[in-house]
Amino acid sequence: MRRTDRLRACGVLLALAGAASATTPNGLPGVPQPAPASAPSAQPAWASMTPQQKRDLRARYAAWQALPDAEKLRVRRAGAALVAMPVAERQALQARFAGMDQMHREGWLLGPRLGAAYARLQPLLGYLPAAQREPMLNLLEQLDADSLEQLSLISQRTPPQDRAALREALLAVAPAQRAAWLREKVGH
């Protein structure tokens, strides 16, 4: 796994931390490790959480469940690499992630590929109506790297008052026509 791929997958891993079972080291999803026989039950920990902590944990778990299998595999590999890192390097990576804006940290919940593009897509996706969330995420998963980059440019160039219309128009474009539609919008 290339270093940039590992860093992207680690971003997802850190965003999802705590979403996996209590038997994973450092709460890293998809990196199972047998729990010692004397390990305490997860129930007391759950019972001591605030409602906000429980909501956050549920959201991270749902994000993990929603990742495509290929993205989960990348995150699992990154988890193994993260666990194998020297403690200082792992802590530096965790500190770098913690230093990011919360909005961008949460963007990593979309997986390594979309998480890496989220900062540029945020103007378009940041205030996505609930009814458009699933169709838009499905659409984003279908885009190739060039189309995703073009959508990132369009997202950044579109004034706030025009973003809802842009999302509706994008969702209305047939999948076979999206690449051409995006190129036309970018001006290529």
From TrEMBL:
Residues 23-51 are annotated as: Disordered. InterPro entries: DUF3106. It comes from the Bacteria. Residues 1-22 form the signal peptide. Keywords: Signal. Pfam families: DUF3106 (PF11304). This is DUF3106 domain-containing protein. It comes from Stenotrophomonas capsici.
